[in-house]
Design a protein that fits this description.
The chain has a five-stranded parallel β-sheet with strand order 2-1-6-5-7. It is an alpha/beta fold. Helices cover 33% and strands 18% of the residues. It has helices at residues 20-27, 64-77, 95-101, 119-124, 141-152, 163-166, 200-218, 220-224; strands at residues 2-7, 32-37, 50-51, 61-62, 82-92, 106-111, 128-131, 185-186, 189-190. It has two domains: 2-152, SPOUT methyltransferase, trefoil knot domain (Alpha/beta knot); 169-224, Trp Operon Repressor, Chain A (Orthogonal Bundle), CATH 1.10.1270. The protein binds adenine (ADE). Adenine binds at residues 86-88, 112, 131-133, 135-137, 139-140, 143. Adenine binds next to strand 5.
Length: 225
C-alpha cells in the first residue's frame, strides 16, 4: 500500500512512522508513506497556502490551488482508491472503516488547518471526509497518523501473528476480554483460576463471557448494533 500525505507540517510525522509495526511494514515493503509539503505547490511569492475567507469572519482558509495542484500531480502517476480529508466534521473513524481502507492500494490523506479548506476542494477532489472524534485538533496531522497506524497494522503480512488482528477489540463488535501474564500472583492479586486450568474450552467460554460483559458495560451501543 502507498499512502501520500499532503500537509503543511511534514516534519510533524517524524517518529510516528519510524517505530514498531509501521516501521516493520515499511521495511518489509508492505507500506510506503510519502509526505508532500503543500507549500511546494504554492505559486504566490511568499508560498502562501491560506487566505482570508470570502464574506469575512475569523480565521484563514486553505486555498484551493496548491491542494488541487498537489492532488493532480499525484493522480498523474497512479490511480487512488480514496482522497481522504481529515476534518472534525467528517465521518467518525471506526474499525469497519479501517478494515476497508487496509485493502486499498493507494490513498491520499489531506491534512486540514486553520478554518478549513476551500469548499471546492471538498466537493471536487475529496472522496472521503474522516474525523477521529468529536473534538478539534490543531490540524489533521495527528488524525492522519492515527488512521495510517490503524490501517497499516491490518495489511496482510504486517503483524507477525496474523490472527491477533482478528482478536482486536471492535473486530466482532465486542471489546477484548482482560489479559494477564506472569506472575500468577502479583502482590496478592491473583489471575482468574480458569486461565491457569489448561482447559481450552473453558478458557474460550470465559473469554467470550468477559468480552460480552465488558462490551455491555463500556460500549452498550455496540451490542444494540
Ligand atoms: N482536524 C482537526 N480536528 C480533527 C479531528 N477530530 N479529526 C480529524 N481531523 C481533524
Amino acid at each position: 500500500m502507498r499512502i501520500d500525505i499532503i500537509t503543511i507540517f511534514p516534519e510533524m510525522f517524524a517518529g510516528w512512522f519510524d517505530h514498531s509495526i509501521v516501521k516493520r511494514a515499511r521495511k518489509k515493503g508492505l507500506a510506503e508513506i510519502h509526505l508532500h509539503n503543500l507549500r511546494d505547490f504554492a505559486t504566490s511569492k511568499h508560498r502562501n497556502v491560506d487566505d482570508y475567507p470570502f464574506g469575512g469572519g475569523s480565521g484563514m482558509v486553505m486555498m484551493a490551488q496548491p491542494i488541487a495542484d498537489c492532488i493532480d500531480h499525484l493522480k498523474k502517476e497512479r490511480n487512488y482508491d480514496e482522497v481522504i480529508f481529515l476534518t472534525p466534521d467528517g465521518e467518525i473513524f471506526n474499525q469497519p472503516m479501517t478494515n476497508k481502507l487496509s485493502l486499498a492500494e493507494n490513498l491520499i490523506m489531506l491534512c486540514g488547518h486553520y478554518k478549513g479548506v476551500d469548499e471546492r476542494i471538498r466537493e471536487h477532489y475529496v472522496t472521503m471526509e474522516v474525523s477521529i472524534g468529536n473534538y478539534v485538533l490543531s490540524g489533521g496531522e495527528l488524525a492522519a497518523a492515527v488512521i495510517c497506524n490503524s490501517i497499516i497494522r491490518l495489511i496482510p503480512g504486517v503483524l507477525s501473528d496474523e490472527t491477533s488482528a482478528l482478536d482486536d477489540s471492535f473486530q466482532d463488535n465486542l471489546i477484548s476480554p482482560p489479559v494477564y501474564t506472569r506472575p500468577a500472583n502479583f502482590n496478592g492479586l491473583k489471575v482468574p483460576d480458569v486461565l491457569l486450568s489448561g482447559n481450552e474450552a473453558l478458557i474460550r467460554q470465559w473469554r467470550s463471557v468477559q468480552a460480552l460483559l465488558r462490551t455491555r458495560k463500556r460500549r452498550p451501543g455496540m451490542l444494540e448494533d
